[in-house]
Amino acid sequence: MQRTLILLKPDCVQRRLMGRIITRFEDKGLSFVAMKLMQVTPDLAKEHYAEHVKKGWYPTLESFITGGPIVAAVLEGLEAITVVREMLGATNGLSAAPGTIRGDYSSSRQMNLVHGSDGPEAAKREIALYFKPEELIDHDPTIAAWLRAVDE
Ligand code: CDP
Ligand code: MG
Questions:
Q1: Is residue 85 part of a domain?
Q2: CATH number at residue 47
Q3: Domain range for residue 77?
Q4: Domain count of the fold of the chain
Q5: What is the pLDDT at residue 84?
Q6: Which helix (H) or strand (E) holds 81?
Q7: Nearest protein CA to atom 7 of ligand 1, as residue
Q8: What predicted TM-score, i.e. pTM, was given to this entire model?
Q9: What is the strand order of the sheet 31-38 is part of?
Q10: N or C: which end of the chain has fewer CB within 10 A?
Q11: Residue 149: inside a domain, yes or no?
């Protein structure tokens, strides 16, 4: 089992797409183990996007990600990190494949609705940025027996 951080970015919240996006993750068989509505501060944005802070487009990314409430959540599932990234599609909504979240709902390089951790190290770091350990709720979904075989 793997855990990954997702953010429903301000465009997702403002466009009233939260429900549809959450449904896609639930339909796939992923479990929510943490979730909260919150406001990203400039300091948190700089920590989260540390790899991008020096880039020319970073200031507009910071304005965007701090420009309205977001929903932060932790998803759990087999290969959850890769599965979520595949569900998101390419960064730029204009080139993201139809059928992916960004491909279906975004027509922007920046306003691409959902963040997903890009690897195990990033997932660990990002989950700790947004959640205290006690906010991660361990549980065994009763539907698990119908989502995969016992040896998967
Ligand atoms: O989110 P992802 O890992 O797919 O993309 P990234 O290259 O790590 O960039 C992080 C986020 O910065 C993107 O999801 C976009 O919202 C934003 N971005 C931007 O505003 N302008 C760019 N030229 C590239 C990314
Ligand atoms: Mg990235």
A1: yes
A2: 3.30.70.141
A3: 2-140
A4: 1
A5: 98
A6: helix 80-88
A7: 91
A8: 0.97
A9: 31-38, 70-77, 2-8, 114-116
A10: C
A11: no
